[in-house]
Design a protein that fits this description.
alpha+beta, 5-stranded antiparallel β-sheet
């Protein structure tokens, strides 16, 4: 690999990593703001939505809860998995904003912070690889 290609590849890793870290930071700020202005309610898993983005399907819990004003809301969790970790009929805590109750999420760590962790982890790895290549810490 010639020097120009090596530097270009290093800069691609570095730029991608920085972009992912910025995205993680923005998502963290949005989630923190959302949590600060949110309310909690008790909900129940009423089913699962199946999505196929690859070979294996992912399952996203559908949850029903009632707001303090008495409105029944059903939403689909943003966090999915290959195997449902919850069971239909299982009670869950729900976090939602009073001004936008349809924008709710299950009050569990990965449901709330998983995207931040994935973006931040990938960003840190790409940034480290790009910087390591450029600075000679990682041999070519």
């Amino acid at each position: 690999m010639n020097r120009a290609t090596f530097v270009a590849l290093s800069l691609v890793f570095l730029g991608t990593g920085i972009a992912l870290l910025i995205a993680a930071g923005r998502q963290f700020a949005r989630r923190r703001e959302s949590i600060a202005g949110s309310a909690l309610a008790s909900g129940t898993v009423v089913g699962f939505a199946e999505r196929r983005d690859g070979l294996e399907p992912s399952y996203f819990a559908r949850v029903k809860f009632q707001t303090a004003a008495g409105h029944a809301i059903t939403f689909e969790s943003g966090a999915g998995s290959e195997r449902p970790s919850l069971k239909e009929g299982e009670p869950v805590r729900v976090r939602f904003r009073a001004d936008a109750p349809n924008d709710a999420e299950i009050d569990e760590f990965f449901s709330l912070w998983g995207l931040v962790l994935v973006l931040g982890g990938l960003g840190a790895v790409c940034t480290a690889v790009g910087a390591g290549l450029l600075l000679g810490w990682i041999p070519a």
